[in-house]
Amino acid sequence: MGVQDLQDHVLVQCDFEIFGQVQGCGFTKCCRDNCLALGIKGWVKNSKQGTIMGKMQGAKGDVGKMVDWLSKTGSPGCKIDKAEFTNWGTCSRLAFTDFAIRF
């Protein structure tokens, strides 16, 4: 295992907000399904401002894959204008036990 492999397994966390036409197209469900497949913990929800908001925690490499998905791909039929990722940090353990859709 090389240095990059070790860095990819460091536990990281961040908050995210996705802007554009992202509600009403299954974005939260697709986000949850992708995070569960990657072993990422946290939550996602529709905001009253028409954005998608959430928090994710997991291995740095897996969180990086979700950052890419949230920024460029999203769910079928969505139109992502902008993705913001804030409150980055490392964590010694995961604070969540699963990845949930919040209401």
UniProtKB/TrEMBL annotation:
GO molecular function: acylphosphatase activity
EC number(s) per entry: 3.6.1.7
Domain Acylphosphatase-like: 13-103
SUPFAM superfamilies: Acylphosphatase/BLUF domain-like
Pfam families per the UniProt record, alphabetical: Acylphosphatase (PF00708)
Catalytic activity field: an acyl phosphate + H2O = a carboxylate + phosphate + H(+)
Keywords (A to Z) from UniProt: Hydrolase
Leading EC class: hydrolase
Family affiliation: Belongs to the acylphosphatase family.
Protein name: acylphosphatase
Organism: Anopheles arabiensis (Mosquito)
Lineage: Eukaryota, Metazoa, Ecdysozoa, Arthropoda, Hexapoda
